[in-house]
Amino acid sequence: MKKTAAQKRSNRRRRRRRGSGVFVTLLCTVVIMAAVLTAMTVFFKVRTVSVTGQSRYSAEEIAQASGIVSGQNMFFFNKFSAVSRIFAACPYLDTITMRRKLPDEIAITVTECVPVAAVESGGSYFIIDANAKLLEKTDAAGSAQYCIIRGAELKDPEVGKSADFTDSQKKKPLQTILNTAQKSDILNEIKEIDLEKIFEIKLAYSERFTVYLGTVEQLEKKVRFLGVCIADLGPEERGIIDVSDPQRASFRPYADE
Predict the structure, then answer these.
(1) Looking at CB atoms within 10 Å, which of 79, 98, 201, 212 has the fewest?
(2) Other C-beta atoms lying within 10 Å of the C-beta of residue 223
(3) DSSP letter, residue 200
(4) Buried b or exposed e, range 180-198, using 16+ CB within 10 angstroms
(5) Contact yes or no for 201/213 (Cβ under 8 A)
(6) Global pTM value
(7) Domains plus CATH for the chain?
(8) Which residues, in sequence order, are CB contacts of 22 under 8 Å at separation 6+?
């Protein structure tokens, strides 16, 4: 059925009205977005950078390391870049969270790594946490209060980064030992960890014992056997405790070695 001339004119008018409506809607959207953008640019300026959480760094040091300055727009700075700058300047920090608190505050919350050991490598010592993050380069005197890791050469060490070893197979056993010892509350008793052979790992323990771990397989069970064995020994006894077999522990005095 053919449309009449009047119907055709009516259809053209409807199409023009629809086109005008779409244009008006788009124009309003653009105007609103421009207004919002202008408001964000003009009104939301950083006035305060607050820092909470216990660490060896002052709030001023952390805020300065972020690179965020008063008067900077609240929304137009890169949070990830700011956090990266803080980590680079403050390697002892473990976690950093940053959020915007309108109208004018940037709130930073931090937690600190716990130094637990020192890796001897190439004549230097690097303080690490239980996850093998390099916290600080030091000397023999500066490492004396920590458990010393021997037999694991660092590869291109960089403070603030996770440790890499020339033998990459040594990292995981080290992390397992440090985390298990920390969880079992015996880390202070371990004076040295010898990782020269990852299938024959040894500990210098409590200045009285050499502990043969073997591997880190079933390490929590081996640590329990170690505790039972030490509890059965006299306070003056010194020697070798072998827990390399996760089913039992044995002791022999140093004189029998």
Answers:
(1) 79
(2) 19
(3) S
(4) bbeeeebbebbebbbbeeb
(5) yes
(6) 0.80
(7) 48-112 (3.10.20.310), 117-256 (3.40.50)
(8) none
- For residues 151 and 167, what is the distance between their CA atoms, to the nearest angstrom? 10
CA atoms within 13 A on the CB side of 37: 6
Residue pair 198/173 in contact (Cβ under 8 Å)? The answer is yes
Share of the chain above pLDDT 70, in %: 82
Question: pLDDT by residue for the chain (257 residues), tens digit each?
Answer: 555 655 555 555 555 555 555 555 665 565 556 544 554 555 678 999 999 999 999 999 999 999 999 999 888 889 999 999 999 999 999 999 999 998 899 999 999 999 999 999 888 999 999 999 999 999 999 999 999 999 999 999 999 999 999 999 999 999 999 999 999 999 999 999 999 999 999 999 999 999 999 999 999 999 999 999 999 999 999 999 999 998 889 999 997 54
Q: Measured between alpha carbons, how far is 117 from 147 in angstroms, rounded to an integer?
A: 5
Contacts of 10 (CB under 8 A, 6+ apart): none
Q: CA angle 30-32-36, nearest 5°?
A: 115
User: Taking the C-alpha atoms of 125, 126, 129 and 134 in order, what is their torsion angle to the nearest 10 degrees?
Assistant: -170
Q: For residues 116 and 12, what is the distance between their CA atoms, to the nearest angstrom?
A: 80
The whole-angstrom separation of Cα 25 and Cα 15 is 15
Max distance between CA atoms of the chain, in angstroms, equals 117
